[in-house]
Design a protein that fits this description.
Elements: E1 6-10, H1 19-23, E2 33-39, H2 52-58, E3 68-72, E4 93-97, E5 127-130, E6 133-136, E7 143-147, E8 169-173, E9 194-198, H3 209-212, E10 221-225, E11 246-250, E12 257-258, E13 271-275, E14 282-283
Parallel strand pairs: 1-2, 2-3, 3-4, 4-7, 7-8, 8-9, 9-10, 10-11, 11-13, 12-14
Antiparallel strand pairs: 5-6
Length: 287
């Protein structure tokens, strides 16, 4: 079984009750796997937190060569201790779905979301140092998908350009309890191409509108749907976008105007969707 290659999907992990039982899968010995898909149960089957699942997932330590990781229907309340850039240096994509009891995705290896600046270049080293403390980044991680993590409140540390310097795609969907994301620092994701934030209805943004969400020129596709106060960043957040091809705004009640004639992406935009934006009154020159 250690010669398995490609993708390994393990279902119904919820029936496993101990770290020792989980370790019998010997995932750390399967060095030829590229993708690991851990499916615990369906979302409708999660009725309350199951603390023992924190230990179970710790026992499912994969080999360091894993490039793509999915975790679905997990009822613990924290990330596994091996989900860090030291142990998974080759990780390229991360998807967490219906992990209902995560409140934060903090990691002791990560720098604070407010420390340092990103150069906008792909990192060649996984270690940065600040005040004598080594911080390790996921230098190869290009895609993050968080879906149905209802109790997740804060992504300020996790979703940081210092920690994820090569990120190209961010998707946040149905994280209804999410209150804070470092959207003002998105401009430092120098390779970001796709940004999708949908039904994160509790987002609170106390900054001035022009500072709420600042986006990089690399962005090509932007979709915002029913995301609390995040939509107050429009239209100012469009000013850096010279390569945008897709813009989708749905249920964005704070958007009053989209001055298409005066934004840099007017010549690259190929698809525009504006739906159920109750305060939107004008599109075109000068808003």
């Amino acid at each position: 079984m250690n010669q398995l290659r490609g993708t390994l999907r393990i279902r119904s992990i919820g029936i496993v009750k101990s770290k020792e039982e989980a370790a019998e899968a010997r995932l750390a010995d399967k060095k030829y796997l590229k993708e690991l898909d851990l499916q615990w149960r369906g979302c409708n089957e999660i009725l309350k937190p199951i603390p023992c699942e924190n230990e179970v997932i710790d026992g499912m330590f994969p080999h360091e060569t894993i490039q793509h990781l999915k975790v679905d229907g997990f009822a613990g309340d924290r990330l596994p201790n091996w989900l860090n850039p030291k142990d998974l240096q080759n990780l390229r994509s991360l998807q967490l779905s219906d992990c209902l009891y995560f409140e934060t995705l903090s990691n002791p290896y990560f720098a604070s979301g407010t420390q340092g600046d990103s150069t906008g270049q792909h990192a060649s080293s996984s270690t940065n140092c600040s005040n004598g403390i080594a911080f390790i980044a996921f230098t190869r991680l290009t895609s993050v998908i968080l879906s149905g993590c209802y109790r997740l409140k804060n992504l300020d540390q996790f979703l940081s350009p210092k920690n994820l310097p090569s990120l190209e795609s961010i998707s946040l969907d149905e994280c209804y309890g999410l209150e804070s994301i470092p959207a003002e620092n998105f401009v430092r994701f120098g390779h970001l191409r796709d940004l999708r934030i949908t039904y994160c209805t509790s987002l609170v943004c106390s900054r001035p509108s022009e500072e709420i969400m600042v986006l990089p020129p690399s962005l090509r596709r932007l979709c915002i749907v029913s995301c609390g106060e995040l939509d107050r960043s429009f239209p100012s957040c469009l000013q850096n976008l010279t390569s945008l091809t897709v813009l989708c705004l749905i249920e964005c009640d704070n958007v009053e105007s989209i001055p298409l004639d005066s934004i840099p992406c007017i010549n690259t935009l190929r698809f525009l969707a504006l739906e159920i934006c109750k305060e939107l009154s004008s599109i075109g020159r000068d808003g």
